[in-house]
Please model this.
Amino acid sequence: MPSKHPLVLQFNSQRLSSKICQVTRRRGFVYGCLPCKFAVHIESVSASLDFVVEDKSHEHPFTLFTRRSSFICDACGVEGSYASYICCTSKIMVHKKCTSLPRIIKSKWHDHRLFHKYFLFRVLNCIMCNDEVSTDYGSYYCSECDVIFHVKCAMKNKDSYEIAENEDKESADVSSITNVLEWNDAGKATVIEHICRN
Model:
């Protein structure tokens, strides 16, 4: 049975990373529990208390999952711990920062827009790092060229991408947890695959 400890305002002498934002800072105060090596930045506490987060890039709200546990983020494929947000409808679990990933980006490393997908059915290698991208987790994908980026590779440098607003090639009502297989001449999705995680 997990034990419960109070979080105490203290100086972050061990340079613990915040379990909410995953950032390690050199100096400053945190709410922490030294026996558990658990720390939360003061400014993250108020932001993390958003029990329900809604974002335009996902059609359902994300709810704070308060149980401490490690998980692999469905949006980016990177391990997370403690604070996670879940979408009960889509059955996905994500980092707080991944609740607001841009749905479409334009990368300086590729000519076309890249769409965030939670799951794909094809195994491909990331064109940035050349490592295989898991089909079980989120990525940025170009269906025109059949190329893929890990989320962490696509978003690594803020100067290497910009957020795109125009969705003319992919209808706004097509979920980001689907994969469009065929388009008609008018640019509408005619055949899609949908993943149902039971």
Remarks:
- The chain has three domains: 8-46, 50-99, 102-194.
- The chain has two helices and 18 strands.
- Residues 170-177 have pLDDT under 50 and may be disordered.
- Helices lie at 42-48, 151-154.
